[in-house]
Design a protein that fits this description.
heterodimer, A: alpha/beta, four-stranded mixed beta sheet, B: alpha/beta, about 30% strand
Chain lengths: ~375, ~300
């Protein structure tokens, strides 16, 4: 067992010698967390809005005002004619145009139905959907307010259904709360897979593996000694990102941090196994890096980190069951956002463990063979 | 010689080992016996199968067939036990370039479980002896070829192995470092080490007390350097001449000439026994080649190797 410690000690000596490595270890997580934390925010607000008020009445102004009052829309452009709509949308300066036709107030005062036009930039479909939702909501409110006022005047009482929405687990619907746990997963995946594969390939590339093979050390001691340092590093990075999330982005952690870190170790079996596997098919460190990227990108895309798995084609959805990151994301989001315990998560943990053991066993067998 | 062999223990015993790489047969039914305390040179040209043989002997790769016993232990079955008895230095520098001399040595001392109480004294002694001591903190990548090789040697003998295998230990090493290198080896040999080296250089092989000629993955013969020379076919004649290249072209086809080696101002001709040299000389003279200093010389190992290949 001591042999493993010697390898670990040597590995850390080498890591410490690498000047680019130590900053990378902490800078990469910071940059990634900041990048994702601030940019992947799927909250839509401050929507740049253009207004074409052809009615120019008190009623039309009040109606338009209700958009800016909602807090989602920022009225930046006031258009004078229909001909300006094209250019403002083409330039992308405005995400939507609210067009109030002449006669808007007149129709309302005569108790006649009237209509307005909303033009939305549909090139980013998900943002467009959100905008459409907000817009409908605001118009609906305006419309029912008019009806209510009218009914009030006539003295008729009407039944109505009032709905109160409450978002559980993430009451402010703040996307950072959702993204930060995901970053922890991806950082662990990238850092440990890449470092493990590169560190093993380096021994082969530099010929040092040959010298190690004549020492009494066994392949298992060697592989454990090579892999454990990166397990520790990956673990440290996970804690680091977690702290950034907690103290910088104020992400509340509802569940047990100990459980989260414990399950992270099971996830690490997957990524370290992948790292070993990649090292057995790569001849140089560059090859190992490229192969890692090639594998990690589909992992991230298909894991549900950014794109919901439910929206993917059925075949791809089945495929995602083979991606360990998928399970760890569900687990970590469950713990952080919902405060779930192992009793609710055990089947994901089981799937992740089975995948991890399989990958690790496969990779160690291949590593053994490649020693020849 | 023979009496030693009868009493001595066999340190390395390779029986009928064969190793294929796809279509290429790198080692072809090779047999080898190296006795305790011997220094053995595996001599052969590039591509003869030297490195593969060395790697097979220390168990880094396993053969398609055959067996290797190290001190009566099967290296492929009891690898970890047998490997403690061996020190091995690969042909290519195989230490950690971004670790210092001392860190490298300590790492291998750790792996070989060298006792802490004797370790420092031993490391100190080896560093002193190889004149590496002032550079202990220097990174391996900043060392010259000769220094690297000496460091690699220290790392492979730090656990005091009774058997040492060196794969082309002094290729690309400056003469001074080479001398240092052999100084250490001679000292270890005096202490009873069994040494095996592989080399393409005759002068290096002659430093050992036994030489095995390897060609196309087979051992052609094993003998002492002097015995090997005695096994020569024919005799070696050295002649100085003004145009060695032209001279060798002229007599190449002569049926009593077995082989010619051309040097800058002379040629070595291996002749069939009882050849009349005068005939060759007159042939050369007719073509205006001035020959002087014709004499029989004692054959070098190189001559012996070539004559063996002709056979």
């Amino acid at each position: 067992m001591k042999a493993i410690l010697f390898i670990i000690k040597k590995e850390f000596l080498q890591v410490a010698r690498d000047k680019a490595f130590v900053p990378m270890l902490f800078l990469a997580p910071i940059i990634q967390t900041m990048l994702f934390g601030y940019t992947v925010a799927t909250n839509v607000d401050n929507i740049s809005t253009a207004v074409l008020d052809q009615d120019k009445t008190q009623d039309s102004r009040k109606f338009i005002q209700s958009f800016s009052n909602s807090g989602y829309f920022r009225l930046r452009y006031y258009l004078q004619s229909v001909s300006e709509i094209d250019s403002i949308m083409d330039s992308g300066k405005a995400k939507l145009v609210i067009n109030v036709p002449k006669g808007f107030a007149l129709d309302l005062n005569r108790n006649k139905p009237t209509s307005i036009q909303v033009i939305i930039d549909g090139s980013d479909s998900s943002t467009a959907n959100v905008i459409m939702g907000y817009t409908k909501d605001i118009i609906q409110k305006n419309s029912s307010k008019i009806i209510m006022e009218l009914l009030k005047k006539t003295g008729i009482k009407t039944p109505s259904i009032d709905s109160k929405f409450r978002a559980w687990y993430n009451p402010e619907l703040d996307s950072v709360n959702y993204i930060v746990p995901g970053i922890i997963c991806t950082i662990i995946a990238i850092v440990t897979t890449m470092l493990t594969s590169a560190a093993i390939v380096r021994e082969r590339e530099k010929g040092t593996l040959e010298q190690l093979m004549v020492t009494p050390i066994t392949p298992y001691q060697l592989i454990l000694g090579k892999v454990l340092p990166f397990m520790i590093i990956g673990f440290a990075d996970a804690i680091f990102v977690l702290l950034i999330g907690m103290f910088w982005f104020k992400v509340p952690i509802h569940g047990s941090v100990a459980l989260l870190l414990g399950l992270a170790i099971i996830f690490l079996f997957n990524t370290l196994g992948m790292g070993i596997l990649i090292s057995t098919v790569s001849k140089t460190q560059q090859q190992a890096m490229m192969t890692t990227l090639f594998l990690i990108i589909p992992w991230i895309v298909l894991s549900g980190f950014i794109f919901p798995i439910e929206n993917m084609p059925k075949i791809i959805q089945y495929f995602t069951y083979l991606i360990p990151l998928r399970y760890f994301l569900i687990i970590i989001r469950g713990i952080v956002l919902k405060g779930l315990g192992i009793s609710m998560l055990w089947h994901h943990v089981l799937a992740m463990s089975i995948l991890g053991t399989t990958i690790l066993a496969l990779s160690i067998t291949r590593f053994h063979k490649r020693l020849e | 010689m023979d009496s030693i062999e009868q009493n001595a223990k066999i340190s390395i015993l390779a029986e009928n080992i064969t190793k294929r790489f796809d279509d290429l047969i790198a080692v072809d039914g090779l047999n080898l016996q190296i006795y305790e305390g011997e220094s053995f040179a595996l001599l052969g040209p590039d591509g003869a199968g030297k490195t593969t043989t060395m790697r097979l002997l220390c168990g880094i790769i396993s053969p398609d067939s055959g067996s290797v016993m190290i001190n009566d232990m099967d290296i492929y079955k009891h690898g970890d036990k047998a490997r403690e008895r061996i020190g091995y230095m690969p042909q290519r520098f195989s230490l950690y370039e971004n670790l210092s001399i001392l860190q490298n040595i300590n790492f291998f001392s750790d792996l070989y479980n060298v006792d802490k109480s004797i370790r420092h004294k031993r490391i100190d002694e080896y560093l002193e002896f190889t004149r590496l001591k002032p550079y202990g903190k220097r990174l391996a990548k900043q060392l010259s070829g000769g220094m690297r090789q000496k460091l690699a040697l220290i790392c492979s003998i730090i656990h005091n192995p009774p058997i040492l295998l060196l794969d082309e230990p002094t290729s690309g090493v400056d003469p001074v470092s080479r001398r240092d290198f052999w100084k250490i080896l001679h000292r270890l040999l005096a202490e009873g080490l069994t040494l095996m080296i592989s080399t393409p250089y005759m002068d290096e092989a002659e430093r050992c007390n036994k030489i095995g000629l390897i060609h196309k993955g087979k051992i052609l013969l094993v003998d002492t350097p002097t015995g090997l020379k005695k096994q020569m076919l024919g005799e070696v004649v050295e002649m100085k001449c003004n145009n060695p290249r032209q001279a060798s072209e002229l007599i190449k086809s002569n049926e009593s000439v077995l082989s010619i080696q051309t040097f800058s101002d002379k040629i070595h001709i291996i002749l069939k026994e009882n050849t009349d040299i005068q005939e060759i000389l007159s042939h050369l003279n007719k073509r205006n080649i001035n020959v002087s200093d014709v004499r029989k010389v004692s054959p070098s190992v190189e001559d012996a190797f070539i004559s063996r290949l002709i056979k």
